[in-house]
Write a structure and sequence with these properties.
The chain is mainly alpha-helical and 326 residues long. The protein is built from 14 helices and two strands, in the order E-H-H-H-H-H-H-H-H-H-H-H-H-H-H-E.
Amino acid sequence: MDTIILPRRLYCPFPSRISPHVLLAEKHTIDWIIAFGLLPDEHQIEVYRRQGHAYMVGRMFPGASPETFCAYSDLNTLLFLVDDYLDQQDAMVSGGNSTGAVEELICNIYAIIDAPDSWVAGKEPVLDAMAELWQRLITLGTANWIAKYKNSVRAIFEAAMWQHRNIAAGIWPLIEDYMERRQYIGAGNVATDCIEMIYSIELPESVWQLDWLVELRDLCRNILCWANDLFSHDKERHTGEYHNLISLICHHKGSSLDEAIDEVIRFHDAQVERFIYVRDNRPTVEFQYEAGVRLYIDVLESIMRGNIDWSDNETTRYIYSYEGEQ
């Protein structure tokens, strides 16, 4: 199959930033992977090193402290590993990736986040790693954030199970169903919900639930995922994965690959324009909360921009090019 060629670069007029702690976090996460035996051999470790996951986190959260950067870098890498396992590229747990094994893995993850002190190490490396990581995360956030973040983590695994069952049954989901779940399949909610902890932003729930702030959050999550569908399509179609907006448009609408790519780019760009409109026309909040809201919006922009910069420049995970730039 030919490499995906995107007809133009995505619209994302936000500043590029990167953390000064990238190399520190990269070394920490590779050491963490090795310590828990999350990858089987040196070759696979080197493959993940070249994928540059720490650079993704460094671009999305350029102002993170070394401690929070390392914790989120570990989480981000662990989620990529689990994603590959669910995509049937990697038998991460001893039971393989049958539906029953996946359900057991997810149930164990829920048990860890609900009662981390009760977890007995030794079942599976990925679960032991999750238990250690969760213990670190809950020391970095407030009790209110932890309660919300548990729901965020559950949402991604519920979406992952929905996707896995579809694959097992050979079901192509409707475009609307996929778009509704995409922010959770891609863990976009995990990224945006970490902002509160990483930057120590304290806002009352009444502010977090303002309609326009929720819209900005959801736009960011989805923009992140539509870009990823474009960048990851070539990798996914080679493995038979079809939970991708491009693939679903081709399947359900009968569009050509080029037509579907163009439709997703236009949709991505329109959502970025909507984000900018909502940001620029939002009402102010009470004075004591305005700085926190502004910081939160700035980081949403870094997440969107950072995902593109990382995909374009710093990872071997995806293979694509831009027309006229091959």
